[in-house]
C-alpha cells in the first residue's frame, strides 16, 4: 500500500506558518485520520516522517545525530526532534499542573485575565421570590496585563562534537534543558502566588508561626499550627501544599505524618499526602522556612504564549554553536484567598 507521507516535500517554510506548529503543518498535508486501520494508525505525521527516513531516536539501537542530515529534507525534521525532547523534559516531574487551575494558550504578549470578587452577601444562597432581583456575580477584566516571561536555554555544541552521538543519549541532554525551563516557570508561578500579579490586592495573605492566628512558637512547626493555617481557607479547600526542602523534612518528622496509611500510599503511588488530605509537593524553588497552601482549583492561571521555540534555521543548517530554545509564559492570580503563605519565623 502506498502512503502519502513518502512523497511529502519538506522545507524550512513549514516552521513559519502562522498559528501552526511544525507537526500541525505536517498533519495538514498528511492527516493521521487517513491511517486508521493500518499499521501506522498510532503514529502522528512527524513520527511517520521519521519512519520515512528510517531515523530511530530511542533505544540502544538509536541512530546518530548525523542521520538527520543525510538529506536536506530529513534535516528539516531535526528542530522538531529537539523541541519534542525538550518538551518531554519539561513534563517529567513538572508540578505546575498540580498548582494551576487553568491553562490559557495565547498568541501574543498583551494578555489580560478576568476576575470576580464576590462579597459575603453575593455568596449567600437565597430564595428568589417572584419579581425580585436575582443575585449577581460580576466578572471583570483585570486592570493590569499578565506579565509574560521569555525563558529558555542556549544549546552550545559544535556539530562535529555531536554528529556521531546516539540520539537516545542526546535526548537526555535535551530533556535536562526542558527540566531547567520548567523550573524557571515554577519560580515565576511562586513569585506570582506570593507577591501577586501586579493587580491590586493580589499578593497572598501571609501567616507566621507564633502569630495570634497560627499560634505556637516561632521557628517550630507543629500539627496544631498546620490546622490553624488550614482553617484560614474557608470557603476554599487547602488541597495542595507546596513546601521547601527543609519544611518537607519538618513535616515528615511530625508524628501525624507518620501514619502507616500515608506510607503505604507513598510506596504504592509515589505521591505524598498529608493527614489534612492535601497533596504535598516539594520544590527547591521555594525559600526555606516557607510553605504555600492553595486550592489548586481556584488559585492560579498559567498563560502560555506559544509552543517551545527553537532556532530552526540554525539547527537545520547545523549551526548548533549558539541555538536558543525558548518558551513564553506567565501567571495570573484567579481568587486571591485560594492561596496563602505560612512562614516558620524565628
Summarize, please.
By secondary structure, the protein is an alpha/beta fold. The chain has 11 helices and 12 strands.
Any overview of this molecule?
This protein is of the alpha/beta class and 346 residues long. The protein has a domain of 239 residues: phage-related protein like fold, CATH 3.90.1690. 30% of the residues lie in helices and 16% in strands. Strands 1, 4, 9, 10 and 11 form a 5-stranded mixed beta sheet that branches. It has a 5-stranded mixed beta sheet with strand order 5-12-8-6-7. The radius of gyration is 25 Å and the shape is globular. 29% of the residues are buried. The mean pLDDT is 87.
The CATH class of the domain at 88-116 and 137-346 is identified as Alpha Beta
How would you sum up the major sheet? 5 strands, mixed
What is the residue-averaged pLDDT? 87
Count of alpha/pi helices: 11
**Which fold name fills CATH's third level, the topology of the domain at 88-116 and 137-346?**
phage-related protein like fold
Distance between the termini: 73 Å
Overall SS class: alpha/beta
Proportion of residues in extended strands: 15-25%
Number of strands: 12
Amino acid at each position: 500500500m502506498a502512503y502519502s507521507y513518502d512523497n511529502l516535500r519538506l522545507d524550512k517554510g513549514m516552521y513559519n506558518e502562522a498559528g501552526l506548529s511544525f507537526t500541525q503543518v505536517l498533519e495538514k498535508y498528511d492527516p493521521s485520520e487517513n491511517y486508521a486501520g493500518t499499521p501506522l494508525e498510532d503514529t502522528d505525521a512527524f513520527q511517520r516522517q521519521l519512519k520515512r527516513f528510517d531515523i530511530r531516536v530511542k533505544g540502544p539501537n538509536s541512530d546518530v545525530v548525523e542521520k538527520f542530515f543525510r538529506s536536506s529534507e530529513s534535516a528539516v525534521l531535526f528542530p522538531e526532534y529537539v523541541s519534542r525532547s525538550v518538551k518531554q523534559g519539561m513534563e517529567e516531574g513538572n508540578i505546575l499542573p498540580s498548582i494551576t487551575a487553568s491553562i490559557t494558550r495565547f498568541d501574543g504578549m498583551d494578555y489580560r485575565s478576568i476576575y470576580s470578587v464576590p462579597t459575603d452577601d453575593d455568596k449567600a444562597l437565597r430564595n428568589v421570590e417572584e419579581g425580585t432581583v436575582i443575585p449577581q456575580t460580576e466578572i471583570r477584566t483585570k486592570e493590569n496585563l499578565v506579565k509574560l516571561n521569555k525563558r529558555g536555554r542556549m544549546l552550545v555544541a559544535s556539530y562535529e562534537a555531536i554528529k556521531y552521538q546516539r540520539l537516545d543519549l542526546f535526548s537526555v541532554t535535551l530533556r535536562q534543558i526542558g527540566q531547567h525551563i520548567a523550573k524557571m516557570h515554577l519560580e515565576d508561578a511562586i513569585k506570582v502566588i506570593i507577591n501577586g500579579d501586579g493587580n491590586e490586592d493580589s499578593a497572598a495573605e501571609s501567616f507566621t508561626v507564633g502569630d495570634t492566628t497560627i499560634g505556637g512558637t516561632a521557628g517550630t512547626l507543629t500539627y496544631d499550627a498546620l490546622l490553624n493555617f488550614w482553617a484560614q481557607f474557608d470557603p476554599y479547600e487547602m488541597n495542595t501544599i507546596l513546601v521547601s526542602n527543609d519544611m518537607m523534612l519538618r513535616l515528615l518528622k511530625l508524628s501525624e505524618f507518620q501514619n502507616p496509611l500515608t506510607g503505604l500510599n507513598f510506596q504504592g503511588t509515589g505521591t505524598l499526602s498529608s493527614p489534612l488530605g492535601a497533596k504535598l509537593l516539594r520544590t527547591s524553588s521555594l525559600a526555606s522556612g516557607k510553605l504555600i497552601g492553595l486550592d489548586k482549583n481556584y488559585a492560579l492561571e498559567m498563560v502560555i504564549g506559544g509552543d517551545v521555540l527553537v532556532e530552526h534555521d540554525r539547527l537545520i543548517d547545523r549551526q548548533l554553536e549558539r541555538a536558543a530554545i525558548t518558551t513564553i509564559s506567565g501567571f495570573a492570580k484567579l481568587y486571591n484567598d485560594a492561596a496563602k503563605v505560612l512562614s516558620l519565623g524565628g
